[in-house]
Amino acid sequence: MFGSTAARVIWTLVPVVSLSLLAAVPFVVAAVKGVIKPWLAVAYVVVEIACFAIVTATSGNDPKNWGGFLLVILMIVSATHTALLDSERVSVGK
User: pTM (2 decimals)?
Assistant: First the structure.
């Protein structure tokens, strides 16, 4: 999927820079290019929508609010998986 090391870094930074707002974009692009199966991209879109729905529903001044933590976990997981898209060791979803 990546043409160069710079492309790999840029695509990996997409979920981080967008604060997980665009976490599913690299997977949708990879599915369109045929790098991964479409079900994986659909799963990321569903998880991203669910995370933002939960964060929006639980927003407020509650000290037990863990919505920000959920977005940080989504950001870390999606950036890690984006970096592993071209790895030969990973075969799930390919």
Answer: 0.83
Cβ atoms 20, 75 nearer than 8 A: yes
Q: For the chain, what's the residue count?
A: 94
Report the 10 Å Cβ neighbour count for 62. Answer: 9
Using left for φ > 0, alpha for ψ between -120 and 50, and beta otherwise, residue 60 falls in left
Task: Please answer whether residues 47 and 74 qualify as being in contact, where contact means their C-beta atoms are separated by less than 8 angstroms.
Answer: yes
DSSP 87: -
44 with 24: CB under 8 angstroms?
Answer: yes
Residues 78-94 have pLDDT tens digits of 999 888 887 766 666 66
- Count the Cβ atoms, other than its own, within 10 Å of residue 17: 13
Backbone angles phi, psi at 24, to 5 degrees: -90, -15
Residue 50 Cα to chain centre, angstroms:
13
Nearest Cα neighbor of 24 from 50, 48, 56 is 48
